[in-house]
Amino acid sequence: MSALTPFATTRVMLRLHRPALYVWAGVLVVAGALLLWLYGPLTDAAASAWLVWNGCGMSACTYDQDAILTYKSLALYMSIAVNLVPFLVAAWAGASLTGREMESGTAQLAWTQSISPARWLTAKLALPAALVTAGTSVLVLLHNLVWSKGDGKIDTAKPWTDDLTFHANGPTTVAFALFGLVAGALAGLALRRSLAALVLALVGVGGVRAVVSLALPHLWPSVTTVTDLTGEGPKSLGLTVDEGLLTSTGAHIANPYCGSSQFSACRDLYEHLGAVSYYTDSHPFSHYWPLQLVATALVLALTALAALVAFRLLKRHTGAATVTAVTIKEHA
Questions:
Q1: Alpha-carbon 176 to chain mean position
Q2: Contact between residue 176 and residue 299 where contact means Cβ atoms under 8 Å apart
Q3: What's the CA gap between 191 and 206, in Å, rounded?
Q4: What is the pLDDT of residue 15?
C-alpha cells in the first residue's frame, strides 16, 4: 500500500474525528451567538438600567433590573465557558486524538501500512491546531469586545484584573488551548489508554494555568505607588504584586492592616514600626497587553516543549526509521 498524500491524510483525519468537529462547530456557534447577544442588545439594556439607577440617588425609581441581572449572570457564564475551552480541547486530545488509537492498535497498523509515525503525529496535531487556534481566537475576540463595551458603563462588570476575565479577554486562552491539544496528544502516546490520558491532560492544563496565574504579576516590571498613612491603606493601580509599609530608612515591612493614622492607636503603631507611608507594587491597565503577551509566550514555549517530547517519545517507541511502509508490487 502506498503512503497517503497530505490531502488524503487530512481527509482521513476529518472523517475519523467528524463527531468532534461537529461538537466544536456547535460550541463556537452557540458561544458566539451568546457573546454577540451580550455585546449588542444586552449590554445596551444593562448600561441604560445602570444609568437610571445611578441617577436615582436616594429616591425610589423604576429601572430594568432584569437586564442588569441577566447581563451579570450571562457575562459570568461566558467568561467561565471561554476559560473552559482549553480543558475541553485537552480532554478530547487525550481521549480521542492519540489515546484511543494507541489503545486499540490502529495507530500501529497505520504506521506499518501507509504513513510514518512522525507524519502520523504531525497530521494529528496540525489540522486540530489550526481549528483550535481559529475557533478559540474568535471566542476571545468576542469576549474582549463584550467586556470593553461594558467597562465603565455596567457597575457589576468584572475588572480586567479578575482571573477569568483576564484570560478570556486575551491570547493566553488560545495558548492554553494549544497546550491542551499537545498535552493530550502526549498523554495518549505515553499512557496508551484513552481515559487515563484524558485525566492526565486535564491535570496538565490545570497545572500550567495555575502556575501562569501565580506567576502573572511577576512577568512584567510593576509600578510602585506611595501614599500617605492618613489614608485607609495602600492604593493599587490594578493588579497588585506587593503592598505594605515604607519606613523612614526605605525598608519595606508588612502591613498590619490597622487603618488610617488619624486613629491614635494606628498612629502609635506606625510610629513604633517607624513607618512613614504605604507602598504598593502593582500593574496599571496599561500593563495588560505586556502581561498577556509574556504569559502567552511562556505557554507557547511549554507547548513547543511538550510537542518535542511527544515526537521524541514516539521515535523511541517506534524506532529510528522514518518510513515503515510496505510496498506490494504486482507483475504482469
A1: 5
A2: yes
A3: 19
A4: 74
Q: What angle do CA 162, 46, 140 make, to 5 degrees?
A: 45
SS3 state at 242: strand
Q: What percent of the chain has pLDDT over 70?
A: 89
Strand partners, 252: 246
Which triple of cell numbers denotes residue 215? 506567576
277 pairs with which residues across the strands?
A: 246
Residue 229 C-alpha cell reads as 498613612
Residue boundaries of the structural domains of the chain: 6-219+287-318, 223-285
Q: Which residues of 290-323 are buried (b: 16+ CB within 10 A; e: fewer)?
A: ebbebbbebbbebbeebbeebbeebeeebeeeee
Dump pLDDT digits (tens) for 306-321: 999 999 998 887 764 3
Question: b vs e for 64-81, b when ≥16 Cβ sit within 10 Å of the residue's Cβ?
Answer: eeebbebbbebbeebbeb
Model confidence at 1, pLDDT cuts 50, 70, 90, reads very low
